[in-house]
Amino acid sequence: MKMIMLTGGGTAGHVTPNLALIPSLRDLGYEIRYIGSYEGIEKKLIENTGIPYDGISSGKLRRYFDLKNFSDPFRVIKGYGEARKLLKKYKPDVVFSKGGFVAVPVVLAAKHYRIPTIIHESDMTPGLANKLCIPSAKKVCCNFPETLQYLPKDKAVLTGSPIRAELLQGDRLSGLQYAHLTADKPVILVIGGSLGSVTVNTAVRNLLPRLLPDYQVVHICGKAHLDESLIHAKGYVQYEYVDAPLKHLFAAADLVLSRAGANSICEILALRKPNVLIPLSAAASRGDQILNANSFAKQGFSTVLEEEALTDDSLYQAIRDTYENRETFIHTMEQSHLNNAVKTITDLIQECTAGKN
User: Fold this and answer.
1) Three-class SS of residue 95?
2) I want to staple 82 with a disulfide (CB 3.0 to 4.6 A). Which of 4, 45, 56, 98 is the partner?
3) What is the 3-state secondary structure (H, E, C) of 129-194?
């Protein structure tokens, strides 16, 4: 049996594409293992699938001054040694890396043992961890056409992001019943991210008096971000986090309001949901969400409202215009060739392991 070693962690975005690949890899007969950090978010997510998990030491390589810059390189070196021992022990046929700093030691260790590695870069421009890994990779997958210019031509493959199959199996009526909403008004699904977004949460709640006469709002606001004063507001329901029923809420949604993390917007694309994106500002990030959102706007998939331009009026107008033109957005998203990422990536994995075992 062929073995694949998956790696990636630090945020849910560095894990969920790996989770999306697991069912297909199982169907293809791969033995699957995972290397992540000792106690990162990836540990629980992967262990819940029954995939064997090994933790290694992980450090972050920063471009700014921090006292941890003096200690983290030693953690990376330790992680590299641990990754080498694990790869020597398990002898995988291929490594698939979703990125994050825990993946760097694993990819470098795979290069040492000449194990082919496939990397996936979600954002428009490669992050530092993936930049360190790209020279060691056989192939580099990406989400956006604009990313190809930043990658070696002989390695770059435009795949889109692997989407969890269960998200495509939602039921609209189940979503309405779960949220205790009716079928006579359109539904806006607001996704603030796994940690929530104070800016988005506040903007949506300020706008409720104008929205609720015409729309219903399902608001996933993040842990500790519930507003108790709005618990009984008719047509508005809020959750800190939604797991399994999320597929039904997506099915019930007529429009999605979201940040512009790469995995999130690729899920929105796969579900063909008209959407308004409010990317994280450049002041609070390296600007990757702005680039992601602008790419989707350019391709006709999304309406973009940058945080600096966010007001009650601008948000209301963006929602109204997007909803009124929803059929155009849906049609454009249906034409996208980035909706089959799981097969494209598993085909690459198959190519890397062809002739082995």
Assistant:
1) strand
2) 56
3) HHHHHHHHCCEEEECCHHHHHHCCCCCEEECCCCCCHHHHHCCHHHHHHHHCCCCCCCEEEEECCC
Task: Tell the burial category of 238 from Cβ atoms under 10 Å away from its Cβ (0-12, 13-18, 19+).
Answer: buried
Query: DSSP 3-state assignment of 94?
Result: strand
Sign (positive or negative) of CA dihedral 207, 208, 212, 216? positive
pTM here? Answer: 0.82
Tokens at 318, concatenated: 């963006």
CA distance 133 to 109: 11
Tens digit of pLDDT at every position of the chain (357 positions):
899 999 998 877 789 899 999 999 999 999 999 999 998 889 999 999 999 999 999 866 545 455 455 456 667 799 999 999 999 999 999 999 998 889 999 999 999 999 999 999 988 889 888 999 999 999 999 999 999 999 999 999 999 999 988 999 999 999 999 999 999 999 999 997 655 588 999 999 999 999 999 999 999 998 889 999 999 999 999 999 898 899 999 999 999 999 998 888 999 999 999 999 999 887 767 788 999 999 999 999 999 999 999 999 999 999 999 999 999 999 999 998 787 899 999 999 999 998 665
In the structure encoding, which two tokens stand for residue 266, read together? 């690729």
Residues 6+ away with beta carbon under 8 Å from 298? none
Q: What are phi and psi of 179, to 5 degrees?
A: -90, 0
CA angle in degrees (0–180, nearest 5) for 174-175-179: 115
What tokens were used for 114? Answer: 């000449």
Cα angle for residues 211, 216, 220 (degrees, 5° grid): 100
Per-residue exposure over 37-67, b if at least 16 CB sit within 10 Å of its own CB, e if not = beebbbbebbeeeebebbbbbbbbeeeeeee
Cβ–Cβ under 8 Å, residues 322 and 301: no
Measured from the Cβ of residue 173, the count of other Cβ atoms closer than 10 Å reads: 11
| Closest alpha carbon to 13 in 289, 316, 264, 330 | 264
Separation in Å, CA 356 to CA 115, 130, 138, 196, 353: 12, 27, 16, 45, 5
| Residue 341 to residue 184: CA distance in whole angstroms | 35
